[in-house]
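Hi D.,

Good news: the full-assembly prediction came through. Inputs first.
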Amino acid sequence: QEQQQPWGARLLQPSETLSLTCDVYSGSLSGYSWTWIRQSPDRGLEWIGEISHSGNTKFNLSLRSRLTLSMDTPTTQVSLKLGSVIAADTAIYFCARTIVVAGAHRYFDLWGRGTLVTVS
Amino acid sequence: SYVLTQPPSVSLAPGQTARLTCGGSFIGAKSVHWYQQKSGQAPVLVVFDDGDRPSGIPERFSGSNSGNTATLTISGVEAGDEAAYYCQVWDATSDQVVFGGGTRLTVL
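Then the structure:
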């Protein structure tokens, strides 16, 4: 599996839980935040949420109630769980290394190849 | 919620200068970042903090931000610049990342 390309089940039925994991670059977990972003023709690029190297999280308000982000330092993995999926959750999912500036604004300097997840 | 507005498409001949705009309320007070996404690929950061370039991005790419409009300028567009370009900000009021809808640049 290519590094930083999310892996997990790619075909889900409505109401199931979407689970994706990203193997991030060794050493990157401690120094960066990591963000999940998805893309669909209807919604364009959509920010899902972020997890910092210390485990602090920020979530898209519209997804917050269904969303869990986690990280595992020994395996240098970040993970996403989105519960009760619907067809509108069909998208290409990316994990992206995140630069946070002065604890305020942030941008994404390294994106992995995305993974298409289909809910049908 | 904060909204970023980008024109859906821009078409130019090779060698011309592309000015891709990103509109938002008082966007000049925010830091704007730009991504290039070629067909079937992941986005790539081309400008951060309004006008800085990551290593490896040609000097032909530059950015500016003032008032209610941020602009990504691509000088001397080439066929290889054909892609969708997205602007992005952090909205501190809502604690959310916001992306624009993207502009598809076509090089004729």
